Amino acid sequence: MNNLPKKIPIFPLSNFIIFPKTSVPLNIFEPRYIEMVNDSMKSDKFIGMVQPREQKSLNSNLIELYNVGCLGKITNFTKAEDGRFLIELRGAIRFEIVKEIESEKKYRTCEISYKNYLDDLNEKNENLKFSDLKLIFKDLKNLFSRRGFVINWKELEKQSLDETINALAMASPFTLEEKQVLLEAKDLKMRKTKISEILTTYTFDQYNNTTLQ
Fold first, then answer.
1. 3-state secondary structure of 19
2. pLDDT tens, 135-182?
3. What residue spans in the chain does CATH classification 2.30.130.40 cover?
4. Where does 7-121 sit in CATH, by number?
5. Is the pTM of this model over 0.85?
6. For 15-44, how does the pLDDT look when each residue is reduced to its tens digit (9 = 90+)?
7. Fewer CB near the terminus (10 Å): N or C of the chain?
8. Torsion of Cα atoms, 210 then 142 then 70 then 80, to 10°
9. Could you give the C-alpha distances from 169 to 11, 110, 198, 199, in angstroms and in order?
10. Largest separation between any pair of C-alpha atoms in the chain
11. What is the CB neighbour count within 10 angstroms for residue 65?
């Protein structure tokens, strides 16, 4: 906990979330975020991923951010010939934004708190089994298929249960708001419940659309 930064650079990426213990590749090409990654690589390699609310603050031209995001650490870094950065980011712990910090940097910086998400740092076995998720996986496969998403399910199920659920939550065709709900879910059991609730609305919509045609 003492090694975690209290002030971090923020990468606001719409409709994109990461979870602790989950890794994602990122293609960095905007100058301000190239500067952000450069600075991060020279220090602790941490970046905060937060979804924007897609509306501007009343007091500035900045896009408002959701209050909860996830701290990620750069675990792989490659510079492409055209100047882009190809990085891999691994989720460490979720956080809440305390306040935004004024800076001369092109990217945004925030003071953050981890106090409500310290359990993310614990290595624990969740009281869930893959068999508990059979119906959820079935509904997810149907939704992914309808939306044209291709998932290697056999490879996915080789991962731990929390990695599997988190990877599906990240890759899902859910809305920005729905993904934020999953990110803020306290633990894996709650996240599983929220995924099930969200899938119910998609199944209901499909049923209604079918009966109306």
1. coil
2. 667 777 777 777 776 666 677 667 777 777 777 777 777 888 988 999
3. 7-121
4. 2.30.130.40
5. no
6. 888 988 888 999 999 999 999 999 999 999
7. C
8. -110
9. 19, 25, 11, 11
10. 59
11. 19
